[in-house]
Amino acid sequence: MAVIINGKAIAADIRNDIKQGVDELIKAGRRPPYLAVVLVGDDPASASYVQGKQKAAHEVGIQSDTRTYPDSITQADLVNVVHRLNDDSEVDGILVQLPLPDHIEYQRVIEAINPDKDVDCFHPENVGKLMLGLPGFKPATPAGIVELIKRSGIDIAGKRVVIIGRSNIVGKPLASLLIQKGVDATVTVCHSRTQNLPDITRRADILVAALGRAEFVTADMVKKGAAVIDVGINRVDDATKERGYRLVGDVKFDEVAEKASFITPVPGGVGPMTIALMLQNTLVAAQ
Ligand code: GUN
């Protein structure tokens, strides 16, 4: 039976460090860091993530407000919202919650964010710096995953990491972080067109599931003793729950836990780490 990695506890340690950093800024006479969150539309999952980020920010002493706009907002108006936040010297960090409605090219909105306030590390300039190994913001979910692996005592250097999913938010930047000098993983990125996927995933010392399909990774896809990191957060209907659904990851937890050496739960694994690392970026932006 695998060790269940406690992302909630590890994220709490990181948030403690962030709180100390914030306290030091304030002692030095600076105002508290300020994070502006932009939410478009009324998707319940997005609203819930934003609420979680806001709450965590307040707990570490980072001030934060969410600006909510209707689905009908135009791309031009949303870009203007971002420009006003760029120009506001009281705003240290800007986070535009994704996904955005289909009529908005999200890339245009991200490119509008001042790279120095881009706490998600989504702006092409910051993604480029990440790729080159230059100092700067770290993408929250990928950096959270690396931190989770390191703090669990799992060796990364020289190991074979297989990532399922090539998204701009997780798969691509995670591969980038893992191949940096000093991290030194050997990385394979798989996606919907990959052939013989189980053959590849079964070779992984560390398997990262980030494709967004409920319980996709089954025990037969995992090598005995592998570490399994589950990035998925999927809502599946469940009439026995008061809210009508439950959250599951991209990994079939019970059967994979029998075979893996380490596994992250959903919820309580990668999710809290994403928030903690985004707050760390906000502190860096304020510093
Ligand atoms: N949507 C899903 N994950 C994220 C994230 O990390 N940041 C933002 N802004 N939106 C998201």
Describe the protein's topology.
Elements: E1 3-4, H1 7-27, E2 34-40, H2 44-59, E3 63-69, H3 75-87, E4 93-96, H4 106-112, H5 124-132, H6 140-151, E5 160-164, H7 171-178, E6 186-190, H8 197-201, E7 206-209, E8 227-230, E9 234-237, E10 245-248, H9 253-257, E11 262-263, H10 270-286
Parallel strand pairs: 1-11, 2-3, 2-4, 5-6, 5-7, 7-8, 8-11
Antiparallel strand pairs: 9-10
Guanine is lined by residues 95-98, 120, 140-141, 169, 274.
Structural features:
287 residues; alpha/beta; Rossmann fold; 2 domains; 6-stranded parallel sheet; 3-stranded parallel sheet; 10 helices; 39% helix; 17% strand; globular; binds guanine
Give a written overview of the molecule.
The chain is of the alpha/beta class and 287 residues long. The protein has two domains: 30-118, Leucine Dehydrogenase, chain A, domain 1 (Rossmann fold, 3-Layer(aba) Sandwich); 140-271, Rossmann fold. It is 39% helix and 17% strand. It is built from ten helices and eleven strands. The chain has helices spanning 7-27, 44-59, 75-87, 106-112, 124-132, 140-151, 171-178, 197-201, 253-257, 270-286; strands at residues 3-4, 34-40, 63-69, 93-96, 160-164, 186-190, 206-209, 227-230, 234-237, 245-248, 262-263. The strands form three sheets. A six-stranded parallel β-sheet has the order 1-11-8-7-5-6. Strands 3-2-4 form a three-stranded parallel β-sheet, sandwiched between helices. A two-stranded antiparallel sheet has the order 9-10. Strand 2, helix 2 (44-59) and strand 3 (63-69) form a beta-alpha-beta unit. Helix 1 packs parallel to helix 10, helix 6 (140-151) packs across helix 7 (171-178) and helix 6 packs across helix 10 (270-286). The longest helix has 21 residues, at 7-27. It binds guanine. Guanine binds next to strand 4 and helix 6.
